[in-house]
Amino acid sequence: MTAAGNPAFNAAARPLGGGRRLPLTWLGVVPFFIYVGIFLLLPTAIILAGSLIGPDGSISLSNFEGINKPYMYKSFTNSIEISTISAVLGAIFGALLAYAVATGDPKGFLRRSVMSAAGVVAQFGGVTLTFAFVATIGTEGFVYLWLQQHGIEMYPNGVWFFDLPGLTLIYLYFQIPLMVLVFIPALDGIRPQWREATESLGGNAWHYWRYVAGPLLFPSFLGCTLLLFANAFSAYATAAALLTQGGVIAPLQVQALLTSETGSSAPGLAKALALAMVAVVLVVMSLYALLQRRTSQWLR
Amino acid sequence: MSTNGSKLGVEVRLEQLRRVFAGVVALDELSLTLAPGELVALLGPSGCGKTTALRLVAGLDEVTSGKVLFGGTDVTTLGANKRDVGMVFQAYSLFPHMTARQNVAFGLQMRHVDEQARNRRSDEMLELVGLSGYADRFAHQLSGGQQQRVALARALAIQPKVLLLDEPLSALDAKVRGRLRDEIRRVQLEVGITTLFVTHDQEEALAIADRVGVMNKGRLEQLGPPTTIYSRPATPFVAEFVGLTNRMEGEVKGGEVIVRGTRLPLVRPDTPDGTAVALVRPEAVSLASDGDAGGGPLVGTVIAVAFLGATSRVTVDLGDMIVLAQMPTSQAAATPAGSRVSLTLRPDPVLIARDETAAAEA
Ligand SMILES: Nc1ncnc2c1ncn2[C@@H]1O[C@H](COP(=O)(O)OP(=O)(O)OP(=O)(O)O)[C@@H](O)[C@H]1O
Ligand SMILES: [Mg+2]
Q: Measured between alpha carbons, how far is A182 from A223 in angstroms, rounded to an integer?
């Protein structure tokens, strides 16, 4: 009786939305693809192409032989090392914090404040963050100086702050809140019935964690750790501002190769190294996606 | 049935159970004894304390005061994992990373039954609930009704002393609900386990239970067989909560109530005189076609006829009030919508609605 039952109305409407549905709906995602194309695929293509052009301008794999040198290798393993450490520590502390938040009142003050703080802090990084740390616990930092005045030396065995351990510490500042943000959905997916079912079936708290909550959360935990790894692995500005010595980690090495003080920059090598980084991130993020898909079936 | 009852069933006793949450009395002195193998349904509106009662029996919550006894043994201080209770929740209680078989076997795993034996038992239990072919499916590969069957199999696999079900059907659609309800009853009788079934659906409670306990505000208002609950409600609350009732204004006088010229006996003849609202079941109202009658206190127009299967419900507009009448469908055909009818009230004992009595007392 309404428009739906009126054949004349339907016939009039059909040419617009009926048979040619697909192109219209796809129109909506065009901006997304343009975005991905410009900011993701194009740079990757440039890196890929550039990495294949040797110093003499010919197409070769010489750049990949070029990055197979101990100091290049070292910057890469350094990157992997601090990314791994900051990811694992960030994941553990972040998961604990997330658990405390998730078990509380879902609309409570604790949750709202922790979540918004995490949202802000997880995005905080770069020069400002490094500066904040330097001004606090650097060798001119006020906490350092204050402790020194009271007879406490913060770095009795040498100043590790301006080296990789210091960088790891700074990374934790954004890794922990990032973990809170990405891990909370999995914790929220855990239903209280599962604990109660475990109990009524004769299990205790250990059984619950060992057989139910643990296996359910582990893939997501692992996935989030990988995300944190990628996050640290690709960070640049934070490290650039802290480390005085160039080329200690992979992104800095790329930069060093692009702007060598001796004037002998090697853009091909830089791109080959960057491509290796892209490959690492690609593998890590694929694993992340795989793990997330698996958990999403369980923890809806 | 009695041989079944002796297989597993134990007597379950709730003695003056009381639970107070931060000043809110969720459960107030609930006393109830379930005979071995009996199925008692706790029925009541949302927030009346049904879940609280169940959780106290399960040991998932601690009593403020009172006792729980299984087969004469006091289990009040025993933890849930030591109580041997089978629990079926409203929904989503299966472990999602385990197959149906692993879910059912979980309780046996907790009891250190070896893998072969527990898988055998799981498959038996799945067969009992009609899911033999589904042992290797995960929860997300099962329908809501199938998930609840697995949950039932899981609860029963440990041969619990009591089976507790908290609105196990409320997340399912109507058709599945009816079928699974009968299925639960069949399995319960087959196993012979003492069962406490919580629901807010009166039809469900009346259909499945040996006895129904109607709860209101943490108290048990009436406990009895479904027929008694329905036809002889002990309190106005029960009368209004269970089944449909017409609220008809009348005059209480000498142990009777006069409703629009018809004298009806009272369930409680000691009701004080005065105006009151009588609760009249739709089945107690009969209709007669009355084409030529001009008027009268019980003459009206049919405004709707709802076909419910074997019976039909007829809605009659008396001008100042709407009355429902329920009758065999064959009779309802004589009074289609729009026809003029006269009503007759069968002189069953009626209850007086609460609020009006309260107002009269005040
Ligand atoms: N953990 C709790 N903390 C505080 N109050 C609670 C808690 N659990 C239940 N209550 C309160 O106790 C009362 C009874 O709750 P209960 O869950 O037993 O009701 P119910 O009959 O199962 O209702 P429904 O049909 O909605 O499930 C309610 O007023 C509820 O708010
Ligand atoms: Mg409830």
A: 10
